[in-house]
């Protein structure tokens, strides 16, 4: 049994105590004092004075690199990074080696996640065999496997053939799943290295036009509307995509979208140093894109935050710009970037943080026991955040094996103190409890 003392639910109202019994929130009350808890033996008390309680975060977009690149991240190290970031569930992308395009691989990832036990690891199934975009993978077999796959994605690649995309949407509709699309028209991004615009031109980097993203999002929204299937747009990066999403939602399309913390804070101004730590797909865009993305998230046109946590080895990152792999770490810095870019400027309150980091992603993925309200009878799957504290990001101190964080050296607001998964403390005082 556990007693969380003096915490503010969603950062609202007066502090309360939360009694956790058998993995469930058993009581919430103003000062469950000694008298009412005296007869309870074995009560572990967590002093949460000044902290904010939120439902555990859910990341729809994580790269865990196992199997295949365990030199950069494993299910164990990625789970630790997730728990430290306040996450209680993550979706592990399919672009592993071998690709997660069949029941054997997704069950392996699912089982390994359970063994580690720090967060619920849900494998994402590939849409096409080998992420090649040519032939549909066995979506039904993955859905019916122990891993119970409902989110399918070729992330890293775009399902660019419209006929394959249409079929995939039809199949996932029948499976009650969703396709998460990496929206990139490959014919428009051949050799692309940076956001197409003035800065890329000046730096001599081949451009990735906004239309490469927006044209696929528009096409997919039309296909989703026509098939009645659910579409999720990965890592939205441009203001134009927000316009397309607004239009599609207004006409009743079942479309949801995510934005990454790095696209909410960083711009292509960063590229001036040619430091590949800033190289990512889709590329960092402009100040006005960043502003529009922040507002779209606050308004709900963009539904949620997803990290696109993408660990890479030093030899794949510390090299010349054009040879470096795209991607950045995100799990342990996500909350702080959300506080910095949305909470502090007044675009989102803590209720809103719960919505974009927990409730919405759980709903999009169809998870019944994540993103639940902090209420009696609900699972004790939650995070305690210190809203006042600040910390300095050091890549070498993060739990990931790789250290490719673009936020190196930044002092950021918001510290995760405790993470709890169904009553089990996975992180305490900022330390993983294994
Ligand atoms: N975001 C990235 O730049 N890289 C991702 C793939 C992806 O999300 O497209 C990766 O797997 O490294
Ligand atoms: Zn992607
Ligand atoms: Zn990704």
TrEMBL record:
Instruction: List the catalysed reactions.
Output: (S)-dihydroorotate + H2O = N-carbamoyl-L-aspartate + H(+)
> Superkingdom of the source?
Bacteria
Q: Which residues form the active site?
A: 308
Q: Where does substrate bind?
A: 63-65, 95, 281, 312, 326-327
Q: What SUPFAM superfamilies does this protein map onto?
A: Composite domain of metallo-dependent hydrolases (SSF51338), Metallo-dependent hydrolases (SSF51556)
- Protein residues bound to Zn(2+) 2: 155, 182, 235
Which EC class heads this enzyme's classification? Answer: hydrolase
Q: What's noted on cofactor binding?
A: Binds 2 Zn(2+) ions per subunit.
Q: What is its EC number?
A: 3.5.2.3
Fetch the CDD domains from UniProt.
DHOase_IIa
- Positions with a binding annotation for Zn(2+) 1: 61, 63, 155, 308
Q: Give the UniProt keywords, A-Z.
A: Hydrolase, Metal-binding, Pyrimidine biosynthesis, Zinc
**Entry's InterPro entries?**
DHOase, DHOase/Allantoinase_Hydrolase, DHOase_cat, Dihydroorotase_CS, Metal-dep_hydrolase_composite, Metal_Hydrolase
* Cofactor(s) required, per the database record: Zn(2+)
The molecular function terms in GO held by this entry are: dihydroorotase activity
> PROSITE patterns per the record?
DIHYDROOROTASE_2
Q: Which pathway does it take part in?
A: Pyrimidine metabolism; UMP biosynthesis via de novo pathway; (S)-dihydroorotate from bicarbonate: step 3/3
- Family listed: Belongs to the metallo-dependent hydrolases superfamily. DHOase family. Class I DHOase subfamily.
Task of the protein: Catalyzes the reversible cyclization of carbamoyl aspartate to dihydroorotate.
Q: What is this protein called?
A: Dihydroorotase
Please give the organism: Kutzneria chonburiensis
The encoding gene is: pyrC
